[in-house]
C-alpha cells in the first residue's frame, strides 16, 4: 500500500509540474498571440477591445504573473481551457471534444489490438524458438522499423484511387451528418481501415519482437525448469510462468503507447487528413493557436501520467515482489 501511495504522490506532483510548465508556454514563446490574432483577422480594434482580448485569453498585462497563474489554475479546475484562436470564439474544450473521439476510436483501438495480437504471437514464437516461426523475425524487424506515416503513404499510393473501395482522406464521406445510423457508421469504418491498418501492422511487429526476445530469456530461468519438473502441462508453464514474467517489461511500453495515443500518430492523421487531435495540433502550431496547443499538450501529459499509473497498478498484480515492504 505504501508503494502505491508514494506513486500517487509522485504522479500528483508531476501533474502539477506539467500544468505549471503548460502555463508558461505562451508566455515564453516569442511573439504576441493576441496581436497575431488581430493581424490575421485584419480588423481595426480600439485599445479597450484589445485589452479585453488580453483578459479573455488570460494574458492580462495589468495582472501579475502570480495572479495569472492562480486564475489559470482556477479555470482548469472548472474545466475551462480557454478560447481557441483558430476556431474563435469556440472554447478549447469544445474543439478537443470534437477531435478526441476520432483519435481514441482510431489509434486507441488499433494500439490495444496491436499489443494483444503482437504479445500473443511473440509469446508463441519465443516459446517455440528454433521452429519455422523464427523465419518471421526478420520480417517483423523490418516492418517495426518503418514509420507509421510511410506505410500510410504507400497504402494511399497503392490502394486508393477513383474506383477504389478505400478513401484517401477524411473520416467519413462528404455530405454525411454524424449520427448513429448504418450509413454513417459504414462510412466511418471504410475511411478508418487504411489508417488503422498502417498503425496496427507497425505496432504489432514491435510487440512481437520484444515479447519473443523476453520469452527466450525467461524460458531458461530456473523456475521454468522446476515447473516442467513438476509435470505441469507445456501450455500452463508457458502462460502462468514464462509469459507472466516476460510480460512485465511490455507493460511499461504499453502504458507509454497508451499515453501517447492522443498525439503519437500526428503524421498518420496528417497523411490521411483524419480529424483527430494530431491534425488539430498541426493546425494549431501553424496558426500559433497557443490555447489549443496548451490544451492538447495538457491532455497528452495527463494521459501519459494516467497510463503509467495504471502500469504501476498492473505491476502490483503481476509481480508479487512489488507488494512486499522493504
From TrEMBL:
Q: Which UniProt keywords apply?
A: Membrane, Transmembrane, Transmembrane helix, Transport
Q: Which domain of life is it from?
A: Bacteria
> What's one Pfam family here?
BPD_transp_1
Q: Which GO terms describe its cellular component?
A: plasma membrane
Q: Which GO terms describe its biological process?
A: transmembrane transport
Q: Which residues cross the membrane?
A: 9-29, 100-123, 135-159, 188-209, 254-275, 295-318
Cellular compartments annotated: Cell membrane; Membrane
Task: Using the record's annotation, list all stretches that form the ABC transmembrane type-1 domain.
Answer: 100-311
Q: Membrane topology for this entry?
A: Multi-pass membrane protein
Q: InterPro entries, per this entry?
A: MetI-like, MetI-like_sf
PROSITE patterns attached to this UniProt entry: ABC_TM1
What family does the Swiss-Prot or TrEMBL record give for this protein?
Answer: Belongs to the binding-protein-dependent transport system permease family.
What's this protein's name? Peptide/nickel transport system permease protein
Amino acid at each position: 500500500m505504501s508503494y502505491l501511495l508514494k506513486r500517487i504522490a509522485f504522479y500528483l506532483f508531476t501533474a502539477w509540474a506539467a500544468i505549471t510548465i503548460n502555463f508558461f508556454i505562451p508566455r515564453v514563446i516569442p511573439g504576441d498571440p493576441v496581436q497575431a490574432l488581430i493581424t490575421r483577422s485584419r480588423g481595426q480594434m480600439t485599445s479597450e477591445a484589445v485589452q479585453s482580448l488580453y483578459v479573455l485569453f488570460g494574458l492580462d498585462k495589468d495582472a501579475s504573473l502570480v495572479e495569472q497563474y492562480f486564475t489559470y489554475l482556477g479555470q482548469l479546475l472548472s474545466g475551462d481551457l480557454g478560447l481557441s484562436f483558430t476556431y474563435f470564439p469556440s472554447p478549447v474544450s469544445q474543439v478537443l471534444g470534437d477531435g478526441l473521439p476520432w483519435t481514441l476510436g482510431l489509434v486507441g483501438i488499433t494500439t490495444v489490438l496491436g499489443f494483444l495480437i503482437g504479445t500473443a504471437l511473440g509469446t508463441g514464437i519465443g516459446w517455440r524458438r528454433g521452429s519455422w516461426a523464427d523465419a518471421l523475425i526478420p520480417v517483423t524487424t523490418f516492418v517495426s522499423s518503418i514509420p507509421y506515416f510511410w506505410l500510410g503513404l504507400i497504402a494511399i499510393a497503392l490502394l486508393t484511387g477513383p474506383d477504389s473501395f478505400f478513401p484517401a482522406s477524411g473520416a467519413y464521406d462528404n455530405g454525411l451528418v454524424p449520427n448513429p445510423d448504418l450509413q454513417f457508421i459504414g462510412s466511418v469504418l471504410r475511411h478508418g481501415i487504411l489508417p488503422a491498418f498502417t498503425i496496427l501492422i507497425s505496432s504489432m511487429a514491435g510487440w512481437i519482437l520484444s515479447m519473443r526476445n523476453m520469452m527466450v530469456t525467461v524460458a531458461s530461468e530456473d523456475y521454468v525448469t522446476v515447473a516442467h519438473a513438476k509435470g505441469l502441462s507445456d501450455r500452463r508453464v508457458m502462460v502462468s510462468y514464462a509469459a507472466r514474467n516476460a510480460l512485465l517489461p511490455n507493460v511499461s511500453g504499453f502504458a507509454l503507447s497508451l499515453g501517447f495515443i492522443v498525439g503519437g500518430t500526428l503524421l498518420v492523421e496528417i497523411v490521411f487528413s483524419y480529424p483527430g487531435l494530431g491534425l488539430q495540433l498541426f493546425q494549431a502550431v501553424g496558426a500559433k493557436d497557443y490555447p489549443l496547443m496548451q490544451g492538447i499538450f495538457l491532455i497528452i501529459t495527463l494521459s501519459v501520467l494516467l497510463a503509467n499509473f495504471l502500469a504501476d497498478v498492473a505491476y502490483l498484480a503481476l509481480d508479487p515482489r512489488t507488494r512486499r515492504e522493504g
